[in-house]
Amino acid sequence: MSNNKHTDQTSSWQSAVSDWSADKETFNMPWGKLMMWIFLLSDTFIFSIFLTSYMKVRMTTTADWPSSSEVFALTIAGNHIPLVLIAIMTFILITSSGTMAMAVNFAYKGDKSKTFYLMILTAVLGASFVGMQAFEWTKLIVDEGIRPWANPLGAAQFGSIFFMITGFHGLHVSCGVIYLAIVANKVRKGDYDKKGFHIVEITGLYWHFVDLVWVFIFAFFYLW
Amino acid sequence: MSQSSDEQHPISLYLKIWCLLFVLSTLSYLVDYFQVQGIVRWTLILVFMFLKAGLIIGIFMHVSWEKYSVKLLLFVPPIAILVFIILMAIEADYTYLNRLTFWQ
User: Fold this and answer.
1) In 3-state terms, what secondary structure has residue B1?
2) Which stretches are transmembrane (chain B) (predicted)?
C-alpha cells in the first residue's frame, strides 16, 4: 500500500489506471458518498440544460429582456438599491455553506453537539433563503404581474425561465433543509456513533451543490 | 476508508474560504451596482463566477483532496454540456437572424 501511495504522488494518470485496472473497488469511498456524487452529476446536467435553454431564449428573443437590476431592486428606508434582495440571498447561502463545511469538520472530530448545532444553523439559513424567495416571487407575481406565460416588462420568456429555474433551485433548497434537519437530529440521537459520520459529509456535498448552482444562476440570470 | 477526504483541515481554512466567497460575491454585486457594461461586465461576471465555483468545489466539497479517478468521474462528463452549449449558441444565432429577417 505504501507503494500505491507513492504512485499517487508521482503521476495522477498512473493512479487512475491502477484504480480502474487493479483487482479492487475503483472508487475508494463509502458507497453513499459515491452515489451522492453520481446524483449530483446528473443534477448538474439538469441545471445545465435549464441554463442552456435560458441562453437560447434570451439570444433568440427579439423583444427587450427586462433589466434584472431594476426588476429585483428594493427601496429600503427611502433608498433605491438595485438587486439588493438577491445579494442578501447570495450572502445567506454562502454563509450556510460555510457553517455546513464546519459541521462536516466537527463531525469527523466526533463533536456531535457542535455538528448538530451547525447543521441546524445551516438549515435555518436555508429556510430563510426560501422565505426570501417566496417574497421575491410574490413581488413579481402580484406587483409586477409577471406570469410563466406573460411579462408586462418585456420578453415573455423572462417569466417562464425565471419561475422554472428559481423554482427548481428553491425546491432543491427546501429538500436540503428537510434532509439537513433529519440528519442533524439523527446525529444528535447518536444513530451514527457506530457507523461513522460520513453521512454528514454526504449531506454537505448536497448542500454545497445547491450553493454552487446558485453561483451560476446569480451570474447568468441576475447579473448578465 | 478513503484516506484522502478524511484528512483533517483546520477550521481557519473554512473561515478563509468563506471570507473569500464573501469578497467575490460583493465584487460581482458591485459589477451590477456600478453598471459596468459590455465585454468588461461579462468577463468580470464569468471570472468571479468561476473563482467562486472553484472554491466551493475544491475546498468545501473536498474535491482537491480526492483521487484522480474521482476528478475524472466529475469533470469528464460535463464536457458534453460544454459541447451542447456551443451547439445551442450557434443554433440561437441562426434563429435570431431568421426572426430579424422574417418578422421585422
Assistant:
1) coil
2) 12-30, 42-60, 72-90
